[in-house]
Write a structure and sequence with these properties.
CATH superfamily of the largest domain: von Willebrand factor, type A domain
Oligomer: single chain
Order of helices and strands: HHEEEEEEHEEHHEHEHHEEEE
Largest sheet: 5 strands, antiparallel
Distance between the termini: 94 Å
Number of strands: 14
Shape: globular
Number of domains: 2
Number of helices: 8
Strand content: 15-25%
CATH topology of the largest domain: Rossmann fold
């Protein structure tokens, strides 16, 4: 009897399910709403076009040994390939992106390293508000330690380094120049601290010089020397550092180890009084192009900047 009641319930349940299926099958299927809706007229949107040909030039202005802060955009005249251009960007006080390329090879041990630590710590205390710092360390290999961090973060990263190994100076410079493409500020500089002796790079001098002009950032090389007489390798290193500074509007100094803090202070002062100008060239002809920046009616002033760049 119990089995019979179970079969009856199962039969009733089956009939109910069949009824539901028939009901759904009889409901007419309408086309999707999106298909029957006419095309909506979207409001016109402004299209932002990014022009990557903006040329940024850092300019240091001195009257003798005296730096001249406080100049305005109207004080400068800018020429590109002999044609006047109007700067779209001007900054004399804003934050900077500074990339440090620091030699951590065995030749930097002892007094060089201790003086470098003292000088760098003081340098970081005097940076413009909002500036960011990157660190490339190199011995036989170049490596990015930190990128676009604040002064305290860079200092903490630097403190963990210890000199050891050989010197891949050219490779480190290329990595530093490459990192400049990722930093946030238009006003950029690269500070190189080394004894100037390359012993194991894959890159050569010609490639470094070319890339320095392409990336358009001021380079401040500091060639740290202990010996009063230069060895052949040190002479070659000195030539390289001179050429990099001259090509990019920076300056180079070759101090004894004890003078490193004073040299870094000079670089900090130069950066703090530097102007950054940005403009679009009058045409986009590829190749090497010449820049001329002057301050009219001021013959005595000396302007340092990168006077040649590569349009790609």
């Amino acid at each position: 009897m119990k089995k019979q009641r179970t079969l009856i319930r199962l039969f009733i349940t089956t009939l109910e399910l069949a009824s539901l299926l028939i009901t759904f099958a009889l409901i007419p299927i309408r086309p999707a709403q999106a298909q029957s809706t006419p095309n909506l007229l979207l409001p016109e949107m402004d299209v932002v076009k990014v022009d990557t040909s903006l040329v940024t030039v850092n300019v240091s202005v001195t009257d003798g040994k005296k730096r001249l802060p406080g100049l305005k955009l109207s004080d400068f005249q800018v020429m590109d390939e002999g044609r006047p251009v109007k700067p779209e960007f001007f900054d004399g006080e804003g934050p900077q992106s500074i990339v440090f390329v620091i030699d951590v090879s065995s030749s930097m041990k002892g007094d060089k390293w201790q003086s470098l630590k003292a000088g760098l710590k003081n340098f970081l205390k005097k940076g413009r508000e909002g500036s960011d710092y990157s660190l490339i360390a190199f011995n036989e290999k170049a490596r990015l330690v930190v990128s676009a961090v604040n002064a305290e973060q860079l200092w903490q990263s630097f403190k963990s380094l210890e000199p050891n190994g050989e010197t891949a100076l050219y490779d480190a410079l290329l990595l530093g120049l490459e990192n400049l493409e990722r930093v946030p500020q238009r006003h950029r500089a690269l500070v190189l601290l080394s004894d100037g002796e390359d012993s194991c790079s894959h890159a050569d001098l010609h490639l470094v010089e070319q890339q320095a002009r392409i990336h358009r950032a001021t380079i401040y090389p500091v060639g740290i020397l202990l010996e009063p007489r230069l060895t052949t390798d040190q002479s070659n290193g000195k030539k390289l550092l001179n050429e990099l500074a001259a090509a990019t509007g920076g300056f180079v100094l070759f101090p004894e180890a004890r003078r490193i803090p004073a040299i870094l202070e000079l670089i900090a002062a130069d950066l703090s009084s530097q102007y950054s100008l940005g403009y679009y060239p009058p045409d986009k002809t590829a190749g090497w192009r010449n820049i001329q920046i002057t301050i009219p009616n001021s013959r005595r002033l000396n302007l340092r900047y990168q006077a040649r760049y590569l349009m790609r």
